[in-house]
């Protein structure tokens, strides 16, 4: 029983105020999300992720709430809710995965070759 209590306390310590919102209709903008999440509490920021070339929404966003409690309330109230005919995914945002540098790819066996193949 003590292990369960310790785990729950640890989880609440790491609970963030930044939320991932997925499966968004492409037409939804920052203003609509601000209004939607304001039902659960005070919204600090809203960022709809957009394609760099076209500026078109990519179907997901990040919303930062004022407190952890408001973030939890937003998850409870808005996860799986319908917006524009789509079922939203709302959960705690995770840190961006580390990417290795360099280009990668290619065939490792050809690296030692000094002349082109043709």
Tags for this model:
118 residues; alpha+beta; Alpha-Beta Plaits; 4-stranded antiparallel sheet; 3 helices; 25% strand; elongated; disordered N terminus
Regions with little confidence, pLDDT below 50 for 5+ residues: 1-15
Total DSSP E strands: 6
Radius of gyration: 21 Å
Strand content: 25-35%
Would you kindly provide a written description of the structure presented here, covering whatever features stand out?
The chain is built from 3 helices and 6 strands, in the order αβαββαβββ. It has 118 residues and is of the alpha+beta class. It has a domain at 14-94: Alpha-Beta Plaits, CATH 3.30.70. The chain has a 4-stranded antiparallel sheet. The longest helix is centred in the N-terminal third of the chain and has 13 residues, at 2-14. The radius of gyration is 21 Å and the shape is elongated. The model is unreliable at 1-15 (pLDDT under 50).
In brief:
Helix content is 27%, strand content 25%.
Helix and strand topology:
Elements: H1 2-14, E1 18-22, H2 30-37, E2 43-50, E3 57-65, H3 68-78, E4 82-83, E5 86-87, E6 89-92
Antiparallel strand pairs: 1-3, 1-6, 2-3, 4-5
């Amino acid at each position: 029983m003590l292990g369960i209590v310790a785990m729950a306390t640890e989880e609440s310590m790491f609970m963030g105020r930044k939320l991932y919102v997925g499966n968004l209709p492409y037409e939804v903008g920052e203003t609509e999300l601000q209004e939607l999440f304001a039902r659960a509490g005070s919204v600090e920021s809203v960022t709809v992720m957009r394609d760099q070339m076209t500026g078109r929404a990519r179907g997901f966003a990040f919303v930062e709430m004022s407190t952890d409690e408001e973030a939890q309330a937003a998850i409870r109230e808005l996860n799986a809710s319908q917006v524009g005919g789509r079922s939203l995914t709302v959960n705690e945002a995770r840190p961006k995965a580390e990417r290795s540098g360099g280009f990668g790819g290619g065939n490792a066996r050809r690296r030692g070759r000094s002349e082109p193949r043709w």
